[in-house]
Design goal:
five-stranded mixed sheet, globular, disordered N terminus, D-Maltodextrin-Binding Protein, domain 2, binds glutamic acid
Amino acid sequence: MRIYKTAAAAVAVLALSATATACGGESGTAGDKPAGGEVYSGTYPVAANVSLDSPTLKAAQKRGKIVVGAKADQPFLGLEDTDGKRTGFDIEIAKMIAADLGFAADRIEFKTVDSNVRETSISKGQVDYFVGTYTINNERKKQVGFAGPYYQAGADLLVRAGEKDITGPETLKGKKVCSIVGSTPLREIKKPKYGAKTTELSKYSLCVKQLLDKQVDAVTTDDAILKGYAAQRPDRLKVVGKPFTKEPYGVGMNKDDKALRDAVTAALEKHIANGDYKKAYEGTLGKSGATYVAPKTPLPRS
Ligand code: GLU
């Protein structure tokens, strides 16, 4: 099991990430194929003649492709391999939505958007919608519209396999904990009650590297993400397994585009009901050991 195919690829990825950080966050990181065999990639029937009173959709139809923001270094959720192929649960969700909006997978342009630039990227119209472990909360709702929740995660801790002292967030006093800028778990772990020393980076894969290199003692973010990394390196990493926040995942889009939000909500409900969602889940995130829980429907309407 490995994160990068070769040492050279790892160096290239790190160099890419370093450049990306230097120019403000956005990047296209090439990861590797995740462990656990082939990750499921489905095709979904494409709706014809979609007509919506949505400025975002109208612009996408004119352009002939839909631009979707995603993560690139999260195994089983949103991963871009060295050939540029994207896989994972969030990628499947993005494809289901695109199909219902009239766009086949080859008419999706994926853009890698890191956590700290999600709100800007969405509100500036750099992406038509974003699917990437994106927690719905009131603060973000001031800038972004959300459809969902389509999944519920919780912040947890990733530690080295031999770790004995860190057994939950209450055991982090004086420990070095890595997380990423603009994420809700980082905000939580910075609370004085935990007494942790934080290392704040732009990508989770960089935090995982620091953990393997013993520069930090733990990585915190959603259990769904951490389980993917642990599944890649079960000999060296484990998830503590005591979630300490609630992270309901939503699809982010322009705050004022109500027609798009309603259409995305309907698409999510349709694919939950027809079994596409469960099949996608079991072939992606389910492979990292996260058990399937059917999302509650109907989803909230704005
Ligand atoms: N779900 C959390 C968030 O939206 C953490 C995962 C992420 O950074 O994408 O901030």
